[in-house]
Specification:
Elements (H helix, E strand, L loop, with lengths): L15 H18 L8 E2 H12 L3 H13 L3 E11 L5 E11 L1 H8 L21 E3 L5 E3 L3 H15 L5 H18 L6 H14 L4 H17 L4
Antiparallel strand pairs: 1-3, 2-3, 4-5
Amino acid sequence: MTGVERAAKPAHSLSADEIRDVVLHYLYDLHASAKGMKSQGVLIRDLQSVMKERHGLKQHEVASQLDYLLDKHWVREDKKARLFTTKYGTTQSSEQVRYKISAEGIDRIEGESAFGRVNPYEGINIQNVTGVVNVGSGNYVNASFGQAAQELDALRRAINASELTDDDKFAAVNEIQTIDLQLAKKNPDAGIVARAWGAIEKVANAGTLVDLATRAGVALAPILSQVR
């Protein structure tokens, strides 16, 4: 039984996770049954109408959880510019936004695809590696640096959600991944960590990023202090 076909529950009995689930499954079923690219997406007003009819959800409940799914990259926006003529005969343009399930969203429902990211630790029994712990999302680090890894992950998420340019975000996230790879070692290369951290600091210099960068810098201090 798909998410769309599930028996509707009163809105007050649906948790936030359950609302996300029915929305994501609806978009998944829409994608699977679509005969064309345009019909894979849905306008927010139509999505809210369906969720109200099937699950008794209010508009703000759908909007807030859709926003969460967007932030998690399980849903994406498909924006199309369109022209229309006003009653005064002038031509105006507006943007129409449809919401579609993303590849990440499909993997969330179906499980990891053969087309997904290659596991760099495939063939290694991580359980046998001394002092290594999983800090989430398949990211393994030495237990000694678990706090640093968590602070870096918080910084990464903030950078992704920030108003930085996509180029700066991409560069900073790659530098964070560079440090993460070093944190998996018992003895990280302090020079590599320092160079990557220097590049991150140049980007994370505004708003809440400053505080998060400070916290990550403190956690990385034992490694950074080794560089003269």
